Amino acid sequence: MNGASREALAAARERLDALTDSTSVDAGSLADELAAVTALLHREVSLRRVLTDPAQAGEAKADLVRRLLGSQVGGPTADLVSGMARSRWSQSRDLVDALEELAAVADLTAAQRAGALDDVEDELFRFGRIVSSNTELRAALTSRSATVAAKSELLHSLLRGKAAAATERLVTRLVTAPGDVAWSRDSSPCPSSPPSAGTARWPSSPPRCR
């Protein structure tokens, strides 16, 4: 992300910080709604292009966002995304990446409010180490043939009761994101035997993908 997109993201981060500074805004709900908008714009390429078209007036794009999202998300989310639509973006994909980042920031803010930020950071680091060192688990989480539901179920079985709710949400969004994920994808089918999760705080025998 560079040029205009960097500036647009910085402005969006400032607006997000202003929103989450208010205790009346539920940062967790904001994160969920931003993630939902991210998925929508990833699917609807034509809409994404309209919202990032420099030839279109910023206010017209903001109005379009409010019409589309007004009844689907809360006011803070609609205001934030409308502001992002007013900004200039170097590439249409940058808007999706920015929304994805803001959703993660909002989730971490929710964890901080709950006094769980240190735990979440530690859990994310250790889960990343588990995935990096376990080829079967990595294959299950990055397989193109595995459904979102199967991956979500696998992650839920690994993290349920063992990690903070924010950790599970962040990891699930990363693994099930429609775009590229942090770990290399594996196009092979789900492994026929359950992958081993290692010896950290998660079970050593998660269920197989199906």
TrEMBL record:
Entry keywords, A to Z: ATP synthesis, Hydrogen ion transport, Ion transport, Membrane, Transport
Record field: transmembrane: none
Main location class: membrane
Cell division as UniProt keyword: no
InterPro entries: ATP_synth_OSCP/delta_N_sf, ATPase_OSCP/dsu
Superkingdom classification of source: Bacteria
A single GO molecular function term of this UniProt record: proton-transporting ATP synthase activity, rotational mechanism
Region (Disordered): 181-210
Localization per record: Membrane
GO cellular component: membrane
Short name of one Pfam family: OSCP
Keyword flag Cytoplasm: no
Name used for this protein in its record: ATP synthase subunit delta
